[in-house]
Amino acid sequence: MKTSNILGHDGIYKISDWGLSKLKIGESVTLSGATPQYAAPEQISQEFGKADERTDIYQLGIVFYELVTGDIPFKGEMSELYTSILNTLPTPPSDINPSASMVENIIMKCLSKNKEDRYSCMGELIEELEKSYKLGSSDSKTMKIP
Predict the structure, then answer these.
(1) One short Pfam family name for this protein (predicted)?
(2) Is 64 exposed, middle or buried (0-12, 13-18, 19+ CB in 10 A)?
(3) Alpha helices, DSSP H only, in 16-138?
(4) Cα–Cα distance measured from residue 70 to residue 79, given in angstroms and rounded to the nearest whole number
């Protein structure tokens, strides 16, 4: 999942190319969702377990981060990029866009290195987003998107 795979027309959004790419490494290990900047830790290192629904949540967290900050959280040459994904916490979105504080905790939970610390399923993430929206809509704050 990455922003370029989200297609929109007349207010309707669809995801294209979902989970279609695989990169073979060695004889038996594959890296699913091979766009490196959007890879979850478990797609890079077996230390983090196998990819599952929480991997999609991580990748969606990258998309959310990009939407509210205008940039992806990790960049660099391949080895630097993978090291950052595995070991570095992203800059909090509100450090880049102060109005992102409304959803910062949600984004950072999506981007947790360990799958067990992320939302357990998309339903849980959606519920949290709905709660955040209801809280945010009761005051006059609006998020500025870069």
Answers:
(1) Pkinase
(2) buried
(3) 41-44, 53-69, 78-87, 93-96, 104-110, 122-137
(4) 23
Average pLDDT, the chain: 82
Q: State pTM to two decimals.
A: 0.77
Tokens at residue 13, please?
């959004």
Q: Convert the pLDDT of each residue in 43-81 to its tens digit.
A: 999 999 999 999 999 999 999 999 999 999 999 999 999
* Superfamily designation of domain 35-137: Transferase(Phosphotransferase) domain 1 (1.10.510.10)
* Cα 70 from Cα 77, distance rounded (Å): 20
Tokens linked to 18 = 């979902």
Which pLDDT does position 80 carry in this prediction? Answer: 95
CA quadruple 132, 133, 139, 141: dihedral sign: positive
Look up residue 92 and give its DSSP letter: P
Q: What is the pLDDT of residue 123?
A: 94
Strand-strand pairing, 6-9 and 12-15? antiparallel
pLDDT at 12: 74
